[in-house]
Every structure is written in structure tokens, then in C-alpha cells.
Amino acid sequence: MQVRKHPLISPAIGTARELVSLHFGPTDAGRKVYIQAALHADEPPGLLVAHRLRALLSALEDQKALRAEVVLVPVANPIGLGQWLDHSQIGRFELNSAENFNRHYPDLFQAVVERVTGHLTSDESANAVLIRAAMRDAIAALQPRTELQSLRQVLYTLAADAEIALDLHCDSEALMHLYAGSPLWPRVEPLARYLGAAATLLETESGDYPFDEACSRTWWLLREHFPSHPIPLGCVSVTVELRGTADVTRELAEQDATAIIAYLTQQGFITGNAPALPQLLHEATPLAGSEAVEAPVSGVVDFRVSLGEVVKAGATVADIVNPITGDTTTLRATTTGVLYARTSMRFAHAGMRLCKIAGKVPFRTGKLLSAK
Ligand SMILES: [Zn+2]
Q1: What is the CA(359)–ligand 1 centre distance, in A?
Q2: Residue 371 lies in a domain
Q3: Same structural domain, 296 and 191
Q4: To bridge 37 with a disulfide, which of 168, 199, 202, 265 should be the other Cys (CB 3.0-4.6 Å)?
Q5: What is the pLDDT of residues 66-99, one digit of tens each?
Q6: What's the structural domain count of the chain?
Q7: Taking a C-beta distance cutoff of 8 angstroms, is the pair 68, 25 a contact?
Q8: Cα separation of 326 and 332, whole Å?
Q9: How far does the centroid of ligand 1 lie from the alpha carbon of residue 364, in Å?
Q10: Could you report the per-residue pLDDT of 347-359, keeping only the tens digit for each?
Q11: Which carries the bigger pLDDT value, residue 20 or residue 372?
């Protein structure tokens, strides 16, 4: 294992942070897998999964079983990890800019088009090599001005030329679920099986460029732009939501790390036979079909459905209780699907998102991820 340290721009004199990446396996195989944990720094399940992955990958490296370089960033957000306010961790937004740590990754499409136009051939592998080099070049040309921008550049540099990029997150209270680009589903489906995902949400553009899309979307845009040249979907990039914030146990971490290793074996990045594929628990559904049930009024949240329940359109999801007026506002689902995530808070402000239902029929447009 090689340890590399990447200094971030110092936000103030006397202050400096760095990102640490761990590198396993051959660096000359021309293949790369990238895994990072806790880009939202207040989402700790991935940190423990990364800890287990570190041990498993070290053992595989010793056995010479890695067919690709595997880059593991066990703490993807040292800025957010250190942000505390009133005894609460603020790991989702940078306090200085109020920007979500998992949004606003630079769109490389145009920069890559400029670099590869006139150089693509009829050889798909050679095109992939060319495109990855163009991506590295475009990311190196970025000129970060802030600590946050420099963090994005470092993470992007480590991930953009990988064939698999796994971004380990979690929700508030949730079952295992995934977000990925729609064209990637055939490659993501085995991961959904090994991890036991209760939902997989697919889209081709979710808005505001989250990390997983930044790594994968350029590829299908290039395919559309250069239809006469063979271009692979070069990066299978997935946001893995490792259940809820408090779902941090050694048993779950072991289970999830083992599932990720099984997937990498099944995909040919690790030698040996992959374990048999478990059954797919739920078919993938469009992100545009995921209903976020919102509280129209403030009050105490009394959930009427549990995680994993299949909610029917029209069914009661929660009551919002106002103990001052005695009013109860009943919230009903408008779509049918599995309830895969809900807030751990039991007091709602007006307009607050309370839970998510993975419906099969797309009905939303515009930005599909929560701004928050
Ligand atoms: Zn997250």
C-alpha cells in the first residue's frame, strides 16, 4: 500500500489541510478503481467500510490478486470533518460558501471535446485511453482558488480516469440504496445485488453535477457527440447510500466491504471466482420518479410507514401534529413504491422533506437531487 498526501489550498495563514489517498495493486496495469468515503463528512458509515476495505485490499495486494490499481480515499472531506457548530457536525455544506460538498464538480465535456476532436479512431480501447488522458489534462488545467475547489480538484484527479468509482454516502434513516447514471445500469446491477440495495435511482442528468455524475456523464455525452467513433461508458460511477447515519457497526461494515470486493471480483478487477450473485431485491427506478414527501406545515412528525414498506399512491405516510391548535395534517403518497429513506428528525418546519418513495413512473423535471 502506498500512502499519498495531497495538500489543499490553505484557507488562512497558519492553517492547512491535506487529503490522504491509499493506493493498492499495480499502477502499470492501465486499469483503476476508485473508492471514497464520507464526501458528506457527517455520513460516517463509509468511514468504517473504508477501514475494512483497507485491510481487505492490503491482503489482496499481498496475494497479488489485484488486477488494477485500487485507490481508496478513506476520508474524502477533511474540511467538513472539522466543521462543528453548537456541538453539531456540519459535514454536508462548507460553512464559508454554503455549497454542498457533493455538487458543482466541473463539467469536463467541452474541454475533452476540444482535446480529442480529430484524434479519435475506430479503436474503442485507444479512444478510451485518449479520453482519459484528456480528462486528466482538463482537470489539471483547473485553477482552484479556494480550499473547497482544491479539494474537488484533488478528488476529481484521483477518480476521473477510473473504470469504477464508488462514492460512499448515507442518508438520514434509510435502507441501502444507490444512485447512478441510467446507461450504467447493466454494470451497476451486480453491485445492487451484492450490496442488497432496496432501491437504485437512475438518471442521465440530476442537476448541479454531483461527484458520481461528474465521473461518468462525460462518457455518454461523448458517445452522442461522436456517433461515428466507438466510445465505451468508461466509468461506472455509483453513489452508494450505506443506509442511515447511525447504521455504523462492524458487522455492517464487514458485510458492505465484502460486497464491494465481491463486485470488483465479478467485474474482473480482482482474480478468483466471485461469489454467486444474490437476487436483486428491487428493480432500478427513475430518480425522476422518486417522490420526496414534504411537510406543508410545521409540526411533530408521526410517521405511519416504516422503511422498506411498499407504499401505495394515496396511502397515509405521516401525520404532522400541531399541539398548540390540536390540528393533525395527514400526508399521503402520490406515487406507489418502496419507502427507502426518511428523516431521523421528528419535528418538521414547513416545506421540509420527510421521506422518499421510489416510484416507477417519472414525474419530476429540473434538478432532481435535493439542494440540501
Ligand atoms: Zn451524502
Answers
A1: 21
A2: no
A3: no
A4: 168
A5: 999 999 999 999 999 999 999 999 999 999 999 9
A6: 2
A7: yes
A8: 19
A9: 21
A10: 999 999 999 999 9
A11: 20
Instruction: Indicate if 175 and 143 belong to the same structural domain.
Output: yes
Which residues make beta-bridge pairs with 11? none
Q: Could you count the other beta carbons within 10 Å of the beta carbon of residue 75?
A: 18
Residues 217, 323 within the same domain: no
CATH number at residue 308: 2.40.50.100
Together in a domain, 213 and 320 = no
Sign of the torsion angle spanned by Cα atoms 123, 126, 132, 138: negative
| pTM above threshold 0.90 | yes
CA–centroid distance, residue 354 to ligand 1 (Å): 16
- Domain range spanning residue 354? 286-359
Nearest to 355 by CA among 321, 314, 306, 313: 306
Asked whether residue 251 falls in the same domain as residue 263, the answer is yes
Residue 200 C-alpha cell reads as 437504485
Q: Is 86 left (phi over 0), alpha (psi -120 to 50) or beta?
A: left
**Residues 211 and 68 placed together within one structural domain of the fold:** yes
371 band by pLDDT with thresholds 50, 70 and 90: low
CA 40 – ligand 1 centroid, Å:
5
Q: How far is the CA of 372 from the centre of ligand 1 (A)?
A: 10
The Å distance, Cα 7 to ligand 1 centre, comes to 23
Kindly give the distance from the C-alpha atom of residue 37 to the centroid of ligand 1, in angstroms, as a whole number: 10
pLDDT tens figures, 299-340: 999 999 999 999 999 999 999 999 999 999 999 999 999 999
Cα 43 to middle of ligand 1, angstroms: 6
Identify residues whose C-beta is under 5 A from ligand 1, the ion: 40, 43, 169
